[in-house]
Amino acid sequence: MRKIVSLVCEVEHLLGSDAVDVEFAVGRDGHLYLLQVRPLTVPAVPAAQPSQQEQALEAIHKKIQRSVRPHPYLFGSRTVYGIMPDWNPAEIIGVRPRPLAFSLYKELITDNIWAYQRDNYGYRNLRSFPLLLSFCGLPYIDVRVSFNSFIPADIEVSLARRLVDYYIKRLVENPHHHDKVEFDIIYSCYTPDLPARLKSLKKEGFSDTDLKKFSESLRRLTNGIVHEKRGLWRGDIGKIKELESRRLVIQASSLDTVSKIYWLLEDCKRYGTLPFAGLARAAFIAIQLLRSLENIGVFSRADYASFMASLNTVSSRLTRDLFHLSKAEFLRHYGHLRPGSYDILSPRYDETPDRYFDWSQKKRPNKIQARPFRLNSKQSKQIEILLGEHGLDHSVESFFYFIRQAIEGREYAKFIFSRSLSDALVLFKGLSEKCGFSREESSYADMECVGRLYSSSLEASQVLGASIEEGRRRYALTTSISLPPLIVDANEVWAFEIASCEPNFVTLGSAEGPVSSEKEDKQRLKGSVLFLPSADPGYDWIFSRSIAGFITMYGGANSHMAIRAVEMGVPAVIGAGEALYSNWSRAKRVRLDCAKRQVTVLA
Fold it and tell me: Which one, 31, 263, 536, 593, has least CB within 10 Å?
């Protein structure tokens, strides 16, 4: 590495530029040979000084070193940090979010709400632990805290401690699973295939008694969440419905702008993101239950796809309504959505509608027609027997009712709470403009300033100005720092290799087309393979553009866009990771074959 750095420094000195693309080879004699150099056109952004970078990296290094040790109130002898495990910050707010988006995500979900929900649903109480940490503005999940929160509350200490250590060890050995820990690393609910999956624990020293206790605990917890009549998810549906009426009351009130923002966000936490977190957990369990039927052999992959395609979510209704409602009616219902739900720089649908939709097109976009979902008598009998054998409190009919309602409920809850969030951002933009700050400048503020203004007589322009200035200074450093997606060792702060992820291939279909991005002319998206940075719900508009398929850099197997791709029958690769995404997106034409789990660069 020293030789490479020396070569690059020499090239920069000779050309008087540090914006260069350098190709080199290493000879058998160990010498470096420069092959070619190309100038790069890069945007002018304020860069932190090397001394500032070094100081920031040293602070991150020390923080990680301090955390790789036991904690008296946590199970697990160490921790690791990731941008994708549990609430997937890279997918929702991005790898380098502006300070406003970061602070909103922490406030609405990852500081307290996430832990309240886990505790309410029967998992360990982690209410004093923030889930999301900031490493110089880069968002990272504390994986040990996350894994502790998936331990049922009634598990004895010795077993819980060994489980968390096992989970962390397994992730360290399989870092490519960092975006799918709930499917491939931990056991957080009971499913009919759980006894078979738990056998892998025996190789790690867990006894039959351990497995029995753990299995019974997960069954009790799961039944409490999904029970036909008393399931906890039912109460969360009711809370979400109350949020919409409260939002209308606040917006119609005579409250000042700061007070409206404050109460929209407070209600959004209590009646929005808290029940949404519960419904998201129920939806995850629903997906796990469906997958277990496939693993056992009751379902085929086609059956699974057929069921998912039969769902009637908010997003699927959006696609239908686009071609049936007038422009005004459509925007009244869906106008609050925006790609990047927490990003004030991302325009809402109703702010720039022509940017997202073609209103002259009234023909329904192509959709692969999935086989209608029906259980045959053999499958119905098999599932009835499985439910009885495994002590899951459901009939076959109520079992599938729960699965459908949980998945659809999660999407509905996200749709409703994002309206309060979006309205708060609109009001914050107006407040900033009134104080003389642009939308761009307001993105550097910390939403904490609203709480300060609400609870004091401070001048808004002064508080906002100070917050924006501090945020701008910190963000200049954020854009100058790079860290690995999964930090296992503190020394990775100084040097790391970008490893290839194991992408999530969605549907069994295939697609071929020219590579496109969201920044291109929307007319050119038809028939293309679209590349997106994340699987955020605000990208639902892409399904109205007749794309052939799409690929995201970040996103999990159970993410919003993964569910949408199955519903619409659109081949997709969710969570390709930085290395693969960068390689594929530079191509001119690619082919996706989801059944073969393969992406081929054609040109």
Answer: 31
My answer on whether 66 and 205 are in the same domain is yes
Nearest to 506 by CA among 287, 225, 298, 240: 287
**Contact partners, residue 511, CB within 8 Å, separation at least 6:** 529, 548, 549, 570, 571, 591, 592
Distance of alpha carbon 116 from alpha carbon 503, whole angstroms: 31
Same structural domain, 21 and 74: no
Return the closest-CA partner of residue 268 out of 447, 34, 499.
447
The pair of three-digit structure tokens given for residue 599, joined into one six-digit string: 């992406």
Note whether 87 and 510 are within 8 A (CB).
Answer: no
Domain range for residue 25?
A: 2-39
Spatial neighbors of 50 by CB under 8 A, at least 6 apart, are none
Length of the chain: 603
- Could you report the average pLDDT of every consecutive run of 10 residues in the chain (603 residues)? 90 88 90 88 66 94 91 94 90 90 97 96 95 96 97 96 96 87 93 94 94 96 90 89 94 97 97 96 94 93 87 86 90 92 93 84 52 85 94 91 93 94 97 96 96 96 97 92 92 85 82 85 83 76 86 80 81 85 86 82 78
My answer on whether 35 and 55 are in the same domain is no
Query: Does 329 map to a domain?
Result: yes
pLDDT at res. 94? 85
Tell me what pLDDT residue 502 has.
76
Residue 439 lies in a domain: no
Q: In terms of domains, do 55 and 35 share one?
A: no
C-alpha distances in angstroms, 159 versus 76, 154, 163? 11, 11, 6
In the chain, the number of structural domains is: 4
Q: Strand 486-487 and strand 20-26: pairing?
A: unpaired
Question: Around Cβ 229, how many Cβ atoms within 10 Å?
Answer: 7
Neighbours of 36 (CB within 10 A): 8
Strand partners, 505: 573
- In the set 177, 178, 336, 560, the catalytic residue is 560
User: First and final CA of the chain: distance in angstroms?
Assistant: 32
Residues 259 and 203 in one domain: no
Domain boundary residue, one of 395, 417, 434: 434
Q: What share of the chain is helix, strand, coil (3-state, %, to 5)?
A: 55, 10, 35
Whole-structure pTM value:
0.85
In a domain? residue 234: no
Distance between CA 560 and CA 440 in Å, rounded?
28
**Strand, helix or coil for residue 437:** coil
Q: In the numeric block, which tokens belong to residue 449?
A: 């300033």
Whether 281 and 338 map to the same domain: the answer is: yes
Residues 512 and 542 in one domain: yes
Name the strands in the sheet holding 486-487, side by side, starting at the edge strand that comes first in the sequence: 132-135, 138-142, 81-82, 486-487
CATH of residue 563: 3.50.30.10
Same domain, 409 and 261: yes
**Rg of the chain over all Cα atoms, to the nearest angstrom:** 25
Alpha helices by DSSP H, listed for 445-540, are: 448-454, 460-478
Residue 44 belongs to a domain: no
Token duo for residue 589: 């034409």
Among candidate residues 434, 453, 469, the one where a domain is terminated = 434
